[in-house]
Amino acid sequence: SCRIVVLISGSGSNLQALIDQLDTPADIVGVIANRPQAYGLQRAAAAGIANECLDHQDYTSREAFDQALMARIDAYQPDLVVLAGFMRILTPELVSHYRGRMLNIHPSLLPRYKGLHTHQRALEAGDVEHGATIHFVTQELDGGPLVVQGRVSVLTNDNPETLAARVQLVEHQLYPLAVNWFAQGRLRFDAEGARLDEELIGPDGLR
Ligand code: GAR
To answer: pLDDT per residue over 66-103, tens digit each?
Structure first.
């Protein structure tokens, strides 16, 4: 099986989508949150998945937290680490340790709107299209090779909350799709970028 550890900070609706939609051989073996109140921990417990909190506030530096986090992740011996609303900047050491085996979901059509407040920024820019992206994690924040993107139309009376809600529906389809590919050995990362089966995925990701 493909052993998967999911990292979360909050609600964990993407974790829930993974719990509900992953197929064999994908197997979520652990969930780690950096906030004790993260509701996703309860979702993991309800699904009978090992879960724990590593509170970043208990550490004096980012390096110390990430070292402890790596040790906790590696205790599960994962083949893949999935960032699902994990709202932390990662140290270069952690990123390089999981090179080619860490995925992230970002709530925009990357490379547009790296960072925070993506829905508000898309609205302020007058975009007619918005969405979400799955990508491999590299040293560049929200900059690794794209895997797949899902699009939504922006409606005239959208606000950041209504737009975010529609983007999340897309996220809940996209993440299980990409993680199932990885677990099946179809999705890889090499020097040229992300590949699905033998095909190099273009700079804009699959659509
Ligand atoms: C998701 O919308 C995800 O795209 C976003 O956080 C949300 C988590 O929701 N991630 C980022 O903003 C990463 N910088 P969830 O906890 O319900 O899955």
So the answer is: 999 999 999 999 999 999 999 999 999 999 999 999 99
Q: Please confirm, yes or no, whether 97 is among the known catalytic residues.
A: no
pTM: 0.98
Cα angle at 7 between 75 and 26, to 5 degrees?
75
**Token couple for 151:** 């699009």
Whether residue 78 has its Cβ less than 6 Å from ligand 1: no
Phi, psi of 170 (to 5 degrees): -65, -45
Determine contact, residues 134/175, Cβ cutoff 8 Å. yes
- Out of 56, 97, 106, 135, which one is annotated catalytic? 106
CA distance 41 to 94: 22
Euclidean distance between CA atoms 108 and 101, whole angstroms: 22
- Take residue 17 and report the two structure tokens written for it: 């989508």
Calculate the dihedral angle through the C-alpha atoms of 39, 40, 41, 43, rounding to the nearest 10 degrees: 100
Quickly count: other Cβ atoms within 10 Å of residue 36's Cβ.
10
**Ligand 1 centre distance from Cα of residue 104 (Å):** 9
Residue 159 confidence (pLDDT): 98
Element (H, E) at 121: helix 118-124
